[in-house]
Batch of 2 targets.
Target 1
Amino acid sequence: GLKNSEHIGKILVDPRDSNVVYVAAEGPLWSAGGDRGLFKSFDGGTTWALVLEIDENTGITDVEFNPVNPDVIYAAAYERRRHVWGLMASGPNGGIYKSSDGGASWKKQAKGLPDADVGKIGLAVTPANPNLVYASIEADDEKKGFYRSDDQGESWSKKNSYISGGTGPHYYQELTASPQTANLVFQMDVFMRVTRDGGSHIDILGTGREKH
């Protein structure tokens, strides 16, 4: 299945029913269309339904369940196409989408988030506080950064301007939140970054070198 997706961002299996599977498909890099968006299977991957379709150049790069209610889903949309002359890695339809009914309907979240083109987004949630959602958002210099929601993605606040660097955020933007400590979040790029206060300060792990 999904033979035309070419790039898979994440796979989630519903903890209540292993036949229910979600696939975040970024789609082909060098062409439009293909299997692009968030797909859902009810039969363990034998067949797939496209439950979140954005446009021919925008796929889904990350997806997370609410830790106590897997019918609540957060999906990060990412517009990206490579051409001979360059990489187009942002767009107006990128952003964070939320479903409260297992993917049947979606709402693009806006309150507190960048209101311009965004690039790659990484998401993280934690069972230590199921209301928390973290996001690392590629955007312009003023609006890019580490964002936090305390109300299941309904509103957001920017905590820090850091996004994954090194060879570029399009290779990284991966977040992992501690399942025991709500304010402890790790961010991967060339180095391992860590915040221990929910995003206000981000350090290179083991060095104490801080990013703001």
Target 2
Amino acid sequence: MLTVSATPTDGGIVTGGGTYAQGVQATATAIPNAGWNFTGWYGPCSGTESCVVTMDSSKTVTASFAQ
């Protein structure tokens, strides 16, 4: 299971969460709302590109947004 979230929650949305088979590479994408910028990931990803994780266990990624 890939769990995705945004902080703060009104900063944007994160797509890609869900249940994936063992070994699959899952991609989470952060989409900022108007007036917000995506600033990076918390969890197994870093940087400001899409987050790609290999599903070898349940993972949680959080996208950080700032105005």
